[in-house]
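STRUCTURE:
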């Protein structure tokens, strides 16, 4: 699971999975769904900050209840805009439906507890990747990296970087290691959705990775990130959905 601070909790595709009419409504009504995702995340962050002790937000893990809360709140915002544009009761009904679902998901999060990890490993930023001397098969490769902490917990991988080889291989250097990192992994493949881990043990901090030939094509793929080590339960409810 990703950390809350890793980036946007839900995607446009996630919202469309909850509401098949979303994309057509957004097009007809001129609504920027991405902007609603960002606004909803800001609201959720503010609410989380009121519930957690100082510094704990960095440790929040995106659990299913938290993801649903963000998704439903985003959809509520979309239909609020749609209703304001047209004063259409159908949009008002959808707005109210998602308002109720957002409050339900929020309530489930509070009841189950906000997931935290003791040693959060932030999502990696895009690594530096460039061709170098070697004999990897010619082609375009997609490369990503992830950080690992002392408990062998792996953070979310960076967005993939592509590199093209011609009579060469490629070298990888990660950037901006988080404080808890003790090593890093490198994943690569000819398809950005099917990258495979290339190293057998985590690379040490400060090391670079020169891709050997042949490319490893079977094995571990990028993971979803850390799981909660504990659940932080709160005694009071949030004021908004």
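SEQUENCE:
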């Amino acid at each position: 699971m990703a950390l809350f601070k890793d980036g946007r909790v839900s995607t446009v595709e996630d919202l469309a999975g909850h509401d098949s009419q979303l994309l057509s409504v957004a097009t007809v009504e001129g609504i920027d769904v991405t902007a609603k995702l960002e606004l909803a995340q800001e609201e959720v962050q503010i609410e989380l900050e009121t519930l957690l002790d100082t510094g704990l937000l960095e440790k929040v893990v995106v659990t299913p209840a938290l993801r649903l809360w963000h998704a439903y709140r985003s959809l509520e915002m979309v239909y609020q805009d749609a209703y304001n544009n047209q004063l259409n009761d159908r949009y008002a009904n959808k707005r109210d439906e998602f308002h109720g679902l957002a409050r339900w998901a929020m309530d489930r999060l509070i009841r189950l507890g906000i997931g935290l990890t003791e040693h959060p490993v932030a999502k990696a930023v895009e690594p530096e990747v460039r061709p170098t001397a070697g004999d990897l098969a010619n082609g375009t490769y997609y490369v990503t990296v992830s950080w690992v902490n002392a408990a062998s917990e792996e953070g979310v991988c960076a967005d993939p970087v592509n590199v093209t080889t011609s009579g060469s291989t490629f070298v990888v250097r990660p950037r901006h290691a988080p404080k808890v990192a003790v090593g890093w992994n490198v994943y690569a493949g000819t398809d950005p959705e099917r990258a495979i881990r290339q190293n057998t043990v985590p690379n040490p901090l400060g090391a670079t990775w020169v891709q050997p030939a042949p490319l490893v094509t079977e094995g571990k793929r990028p993971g979803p990130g850390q799981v909660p080590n504990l659940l932080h339960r709160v005694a009071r409810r949030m004021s908004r959905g």
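REMARK: The CA atoms of residues 156 and 223 lie 7 Å apart.
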